[in-house]
Please model this.
Amino acid sequence: MNRNQEAAKIWNERHVEQLRFIKLVLENRGYKHNIENEEEFNDTVGKIIFHDEHQDHICYLTDSCITFKNLDLCLTLDEFSLWLDS
Model:
């Protein structure tokens, strides 16, 4: 395995773990959610849709941050957890 392949493998593993973390955060707070292609959990996954009583939220996992579809909010994973609680 060359260095680029190794780096891609490490990035993909981190991406999968971050998606699992986001899924647990949403489930623990009672949000209905959908993670696109969730069963595959690969580097093409990143679109997250979750619902609260007021609206649907569409966001993407982008290099350790949650970026909302309308680009008005970009949060780290820790900030995302706190944002859900506010």
About this structure: The chain is about 40% helix and 25% strand. Residues 3-85 form one domain. The first helix runs from residue 3 to 28. The helical segments are 3-28, 77-85.
